[in-house]
Every structure is written in structure tokens, then in C-alpha cells.
Amino acid sequence: xxxxxxxxxxxxxxxxxxxxxxxxxxxxxxxxxxxxxxxxxxxxxxxxxxxxxxxxxxxxxxxxxxxxxxxxxxxxxxxxxxxxxxxxxxxxxxxxxxxxxxxxxxxxxxxxxxx
Amino acid sequence: xxxxxxxxxxxxxxxxxxxxxxxxxxxxxxxxxxxxxxxxxxxxxxxxxxxxxxxxxxxxxxxxxxxxxxxxxxxxxxxxxxxxxxxxxxxxxxxxxxxxxxxxxxxxxx
Lengths: 115, 110
Known about the structure:
The complex is a heterodimer of chains A (115) and B (110). With 115 residues, chain A is mainly beta.
């Protein structure tokens, strides 16, 4: 398996533009997580899915952020409109469970810069 | 709300030195994990500990879970430049999802 795949690896956009980040989890993993990482706030959980259903979106910062998982092999995180404070590295991870008994496999991340 | 604290926040040492980093919480965790994140990459799992007092060794790395399952430590013997990275602890209680600590950024100077 190729591991968790994220695209794009880098995204530079201007304030107000729509940004879509993509993730392909490891086949057979029922859980998919979206994280945001910054120097100031560390690694923050935004939302996670179980069997394509959102379980906890309490970390989504505001209505500008939305996430979908239309099938077991694909998820998107959308920011509309984007703002400079959204600049961060966004990680997708997949796992067999949502507790710390289960290893989370992280993708390489998408580095987002909003000008 | 459960929180994980890590110390120190930053650590810079010479190759060959020993070091210990800590992960603490006021909550009791059913299990705890340590991840290492290298620059430009996602975190990678090093170890999972589940029993209070448990000690696990991974080559030069020794992990310990506190007896009360509220804290953990990571000790590195004879650090090497390849150990450089961000060390994150992560835990979950019996009724909640995994949370990550803020991390300890380690730099090992050749």
C-alpha cells in the first residue's frame, strides 16, 4: 500500500479564494482524520470520520471550513473563503480505530499559504 | 477537557548526550502513544503503552508509562543527529478520542 496520499503538497492562494485539499486513506481503514498544524497551536484535530460518516467536527474552526467523505477512498477539506490565518500544514491520517490503541498513519501533509 | 502537556518545548543537545522528555496530564489515559515527526513529513508512531508502569524499549529509546497512567517519559541514550525531530505524545481516555500534546522539538548537533 502506498500509505495515505494527500494532494496538493503545496498550495499558495490569495485571500478570499476557495481551497480544496484532498486525501486518499489506506485501504481498509475505517477512520479518517483531518488535522491542522501550526507553530503556535501545534497539531489540532479538525474533524474525523468513521465509515464515511462525520463523527466529531468540534475542531472545525468556523463555517468557512467543510469536509466531506463521499466514499471510503476519498475525502476533501474545503476552505471558502480562505484567510491568511488559515496558513498551516494540513494533515490527513487514517486508522483502524479512534483510540490511542490504534496507530494513526499520516499523509505527508499539504502546506497551505494564504496571501 | 483532557489536556496533554509536554516538556521541554525545545531541546538542543550534542551528539552522544542522553535526554529525557516528558508528557503529563491530569487525566487518566487508557493508552498513550509517542510519535516522531521529521521536518516536512507527517508523524510516525514509535510506541504504544497501555499498562501503568509499563516500560518499552526501542533500540536507544526507552518509553515509560506512569503508574497512575497520567504521565509518560521518553529517554534517548547517546542521541544521534537522526533523532532530530518533533516528539509528540498522544492519548485517549476510555470514552474519548485521541488528543495530541504540543510536542518537544529536539535538535541533535553533530
